[in-house]
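Retry 2 of 3 after timeout on previous attempt. Resubmitting structure tokens to design endpoint.
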């Protein structure tokens, strides 16, 4: 009887892993690049998305803990109600209509990586972010390495970090921004000299 029970449990575990956790197919790094002028102005957070590819050996375990949902919730809560205003020399991070932080920034020579002088300017630890434009939306995103750095620095998923490090093959966290126009941005534009 115990052999039959073990076989049934093994089959259920296999089916659970097979049916509930498919590869997320993390998008490739977009190396097309953008012109820095495309950044200038206001951008409001519209949505976030998290992609996670999990080592096949751990898919049932990850499914049981709903790891992707945990990552997506953590990332979404950090980005919600946020906005960015890019000038030539500075970027301002706004949340709920108030400036929370600012930083000097530059777009690297490849034109698809933004470097921030203040690594916490966007409300969480991200000294660099990858950038692309998709259907007139600005998309800032972190790849696996940057996502792990953010989670380690932030500590909000400390209880999950050993699991995440063990099972995640690849990851990408994306923030989608739409153009935003606000009179307050005129004041930010007028503040101090621009290089």
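Retry 2 succeeded. Sequence:
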């Amino acid at each position: 009887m115990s052999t039959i029970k073990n076989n049934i449990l093994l089959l259920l575990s296999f089916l659970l892993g097979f049916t509930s956790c498919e590869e997320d197919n993390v998008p490739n790094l977009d190396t097309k690049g953008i012109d820095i002028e495309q950044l200038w102005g206001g951008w409001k957070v519209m949505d976030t998305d998290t992609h996670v590819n999990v080592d096949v050996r751990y898919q049932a375990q990850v499914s049981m803990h709903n790891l992707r949902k945990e990552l997506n919730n953590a990332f979404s809560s950090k980005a919600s109600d946020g906005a960015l205003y890019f000038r030539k020399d500075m970027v301002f991070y706004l949340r709920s209509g108030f400036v929370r932080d600012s930083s000097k920034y530059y777009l690297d020579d490849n034109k698809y990586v933004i470097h921030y002088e203040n690594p916490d300017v966007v409300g969480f630890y991200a000294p660099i972010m990858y950038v692309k434009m998709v259907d007139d939306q600005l998309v800032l995103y972190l790849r696996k390495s940057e996502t792990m750095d953010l989670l380690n620095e932030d500590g909000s998923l400390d209880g999950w970090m050993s699991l995440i490090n063990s099972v995640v093959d690849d990851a990408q966290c994306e923030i989608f921004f739409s153009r935003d126009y606000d009179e307050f941005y005129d004041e930010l534009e007028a503040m101090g000299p621009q290089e």
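Attempt log closed. Residues 1-23 have pLDDT under 50 and may be disordered.
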